[in-house]
Design brief:
Layout: H1 2-13, E1 41-43, E2 46-50, E3 55-59, E4 62-64, E5 71-74, E6 77-80, E7 85-88, E8 91-94
Antiparallel strand pairs: 1-4, 2-3, 5-8, 6-7
Length: about 100
């Protein structure tokens, strides 16, 4: 039944938006490597929409040095919609 719902959702939504019927499971444990240096921020594992397969694929986390001062990283999150689940990507937010 879930497969049928997924196929119907894909046919209805194909090319329009990145929504899936079932939210992908998050990994149970994540190993974060040591920071490469001071002032680096860890960008957590996330999900990326694949237009070719019409699925979200995992994107591994990484360290990055912010380009601006006074910003924080807001992790991506899953949002429930009427049609299914959509991933909202992480972003930088000013803090001052």
């Amino acid at each position: 039944m879930k497969t049928l719902q997924f196929i119907i959702a894909l046919l209805f939504l194909s090319g329009c938006t990145a929504i899936v019927v079932d939210r992908p499971e998050s990994p149970k444990a994540i190993m974060i490597p040591d920071s490469p240096g001071p002032n680096y921020v860890w960008i957590s594992d996330s999900w990326q929409w694949n237009r070719r397969t019409h699925n979200y694929t995992p994107k591994p986390g990484y360290w990055v040095r912010p380009k601006k001062k006074s910003v924080v990283w807001v992790d991506g999150r899953w949002v429930k919609t009427r049609s299914g689940w959509k991933y909202v990507r992480g972003h930088w937010r000013s803090v001052g």
